[in-house]
Design a protein that fits this description.
Order of helices and strands: HHHHHHHHHHEEHEEHHHE
Distance between the termini: 75 Å
Largest sheet: 3 strands, antiparallel
Radius of gyration: 26 Å
Structural class: mainly alpha
Shape: elongated
Number of helices: 14
Length: 304
C-alpha cells in the first residue's frame, strides 16, 4: 500500500532537525526530533532527498549539516574573538563544538547562540591541578601554568557581557542623570535617595585583570597573559559604544548596593565597613569624584 507523500512543511521541519543536529546528518535522522516528523531509517532517506550522480541522499544532507555547523563556529569565533585568539582556532573550535552539542542553537536569532558559552566552560573545566593542553601552544598567547581555566572563563564572561550590553537596552534616547540633581539635595535627602541605574550597566568581578588583557589583546597580536588578581569592571553603553570602567573593590561594592535598590546613605555605609581607617578617612573626599565620573558615564538615569 502506498503512503501519501509527506507535506512540504513537514519535510522542511524534518530537514531543519536533521541539518541542525550537532552530531551530523546521520545522527539527526535517528534523533527523536526528526523521527517524530518522518520516521525514516537511513536507507529510506532517499524517499525524501534524492541522490545525485555522485552523492547519496545522506551525503547531500551532510554537506548542508557541515555548512550549518561551520557558520555557527564562525559566529562564535566572532563573538569570542579575543578568546579564540588566545586559544588558536583549532582548540577554540574543539571547545565550541562541544558547546554546540550541549547547547544547540534554538533561537531565531544568532544573538543567543553564545549565551551559555561561559557557563559551559565553567562546567567542563578540568581539575585545578591539571596542566593546560599542549594544543594551547598553538594560540597567540601562553596560558598561565596555574588557574588557566579560570582565566579562559573570565575572558569568555567579559566578551559575552560586552556583546549583551551592546545588543541590549540602552539610554540613547534619554539623557543620563545630571549630577547636579544629587549635589543640590540636602544631606538628609541624599542619604534617603535611591539611584536608578541604566539598563545597560553591568557590574562584573573577575579573578584575573581581564579588562587590561582585553584592551591589550585588541591592540597587539600576542599580549602576555597576566597572573591572577581579583579585579572589578563596570560596563555601560553611551551612543551605541560599550565602555569598560575599572573599579576598586569598594566602588564595586557600592555600585552593587545601589543597583540592588539600597538607599544611598545605607549603600555608602555598607560599602565602607570593609575599609581600613585610612581608606575610611579618605572616603568623603573621594565620593564626589566617583559620582561625577559615574553620572558622566551614564551609570544612572534617575534619582528618587
Amino acid at each position: 500500500m502506498n503512503h501519501p507523500a509527506p507535506d512540504l512543511g513537514v519535510i522542511q521541519r524534518w530537514m531543519q532537525a536533521v541539518i541542525a543536529h550537532p552530531g551530523g546528518a546521520a545522527a539527526g535522522i535517528a534523533a527523536n526530533a526528526a523521527q517524530q516528523l518522518l520516521p525514516l531509517a537511513p536507507e529510506q532517506v532517499e524517499q525524501v532527498v534524492a541522490r545525485s550522480q555522485a552523492l547519496s541522499g545522506i551525503e547531500r544532507l551532510e554537506i548542508y549539516s557541515r555548512a550549518y555547523t561551520a557558520r555557527l563556529l564562525e559566529c562564535l569565533r566572532e563573538e569570542y574573538a579575543v578568546l579564540a585568539g588566545v586559544l588558536g582556532e583549532d582548540l577554540f573550535d574543539s571547545f565550541a563544538i562541544g558547546y554546540l552539542q550541549e547547547f544547540p542553537s534554538r533561537s531565531y536569532t544568532l544573538g543567543q547562540l553564545g549565551a551559555d558559552f561561559p557557563r559551559f566552560l565553567a562546567a567542563t573545566r578540568p581539575a585545578a591541578e591539571a596542566p593546560p593542553s599542549p594544543q594551547t601552544a598553538q594560540g597567540s598567547a601562553s596560558l598561565p601554568p596555574a588557574g588557566w581555566p579560570e582565566f579562559l572563563i573570565d575572558l569568555a564572561r567579559l566578551e559575552r557581557a560586552v556583546y549583551e550590553v551592546f545588543d541590549g537596552a540602552g539610554t540613547e534616547h534619554a539623557p543620563p542623570l545630571d549630577a547636579a540633581r544629587i549635589q543640590d539635595m540636602t544631606a538628609e535627602q541624599q542619604s534617603a535617595a535611591r539611584l536608578i541605574c541604566a539598563p545597560c550597566l553591568r557590574l562584573l568581578q573577575f579573578e584575573f585583570p581581564i579588562n587590561d588583557f582585553f584592551t591589550a589583546a585588541r591592540q597587539t597580536a600576542a599580549p602576555a597573559v597576566p597572573s591572577p588578581a581579583r579585579t572589578f569592571v563596570a560596563l555601560c553603553r553611551r551612543d551605541y559604544v560599550v565602555y569598560r570602567h575599572t573599579l576598586s573593590a569598594v566602588q564595586f561594592d557600592l555600585l552593587c548596593r545601589i543597583s540592588a535598590g539600597t538607599a544611598l546613605g545605607a549603600a555608602i555605609s555598607g560599602a565602607a565597613e570593609a575599609l581600613t581607617d585610612a581608606e575610611f578617612a579618605a572616603l568623603p573626599a573621594a565620593l564626589p569624584t566617583w559620582f561625577h565620573h559615574w553620572t558622566a558615564a551614564g551609570f544612572f538615569v534617575d534619582v528618587r
